[in-house]
Amino acid sequence: MDNNGKSVTFRGGGFAPQSRRWMGVLVFVALILFVEWSTRAGWISSLSLPRPSDVLDTFRQLFDSGLLFKHLLPSLTRLFVGALIGASIGIAVGIMIGLFSYVRSGLVPLVAAIFPIPKIALLPLFVIWFGIGEGSKYALIAFGTFTPTVVATYGAVDNVDRTLIRMGQSFGLSWWSIVRKIVLPGAMPGILSGLRISLAIAIILLVAAEMLGAEYGIGAYILEAGSLYDLERLFAGVVILSLLGVLISALIGMLERRLLGWRT
Amino acid sequence: MDIRLDGIGHSYDEFEVMRDITLDIPSGQIVCIVGPSGCGKSTLLRFIGGLEKPKRGRILQLGDPPTGCLNPLTYIFQDFALLPWRSVSGNISLVLEDHGIKGAAAKTIIDDVLARTKLTDFAKALPKQLSGGMKQRVAIARALAVNPAVMLMDEPLSALDSQTRELLMDDLVELWTRQPFTAVYVTHNLAEAVRLGHKVVVLSRRPGQIREIVEIEKPLVAREFGDADLDHAQKHLWQLMRDEARVADAELLHG
Lengths: 264, 255
What we know:
The structure holds 2 protein chains of 2 kinds. Chain A is mostly helical. Chain A contains 10 helices and no strands.
């Protein structure tokens, strides 16, 4: 056989991004090094952007003085309590919307109506309702996480494979069993990816919640630094929030790997 | 327990899809229902199992289901309908849990049905690790676990490739031979119908009506791949359906 033909050029491949470990870290490091170098070289004046090493220094002072945990603990508590209330009510309401026609018809427009309200605008209202203390802060964060969780959850319930539900019915499973053993696990992927968004929103609202009458808290710390134009402290606080976001995202990633190992 | 369909008719809005279907499904037999696409054969199966309500007529259970029967009318679905987050044995235990069967009692049943469907080694596997044929075996095992009076099989082999289909047909024949079960078997594949059916019910195209009921006398075990008698029966069925299938194929779909 004649083997002199032209070989076929490969034109497949691509369009399938994969995770490359350390690439994310590399981008961060490169960016920080660039800013450090530019501020040192005088490209960027320290008035417009703080030097990363100074921010690190501020951070170290914060840690050494013990103020870090004094700020971090109340913030984490607010975040945890608020997000827990908001997400659990959100998941419950979302599942009800996904299951009952009347609840769906009644609540979907309501959720659509409250979703776009900037929850920060309602802060005075929450202060009147729940007082200037922790109550109003929990309420703001809870309210902010509630709406995206509801929307993600009922979308996830809608997407549960109907043939699985028919199967459950055909084997005479009780309504409650179908919800617990088929609908909930089937909606779990959607609920978890909704939680990623809701929890990020919770962190955003944490700063808003601490605008009023909070002595300690990452948000209070940032706001105080901001009003003094103390950019090093401002950035130190922002970095903490960022790290918090990365941490939560990693936690949900772990949860997904544990709970959703069945996905193909 | 026998099943009797008494004058079943159905329509969506003004659109008649099924007319006056009267049929007996005797205990211990496999009744195959064939027909051109859109004749309502899967709908009919959903009526029989109580997943949908017909507009006209009644479905009757004659006699009592056998003792120890947990779910008299049990489906096997075309797309297997296995919970992807449960292992093979978890999927079977799902249908036992609601009857309060747990622990050792459940294990006995699960081990038994897995052995009968040759799945013993796969008890801990997740559905995503299984081939299509294996998944359908799991679904069959799950159906056997509730000890059904009548199995309602909705194109159970249609999602499988033809070799796997042959293997599973052999398995079904073997299961039936060891312990005869009652089944309504809906399919569009005439080879499956003549291989597994004691009776083959031919439905016409919309509105679905019974055109003919073909009895196949040859015992299931004696039927083989490429059997001349079966070929003959299959040809007869195809002749009954051919023109209808052509018209049905050319029809516009009514969503």
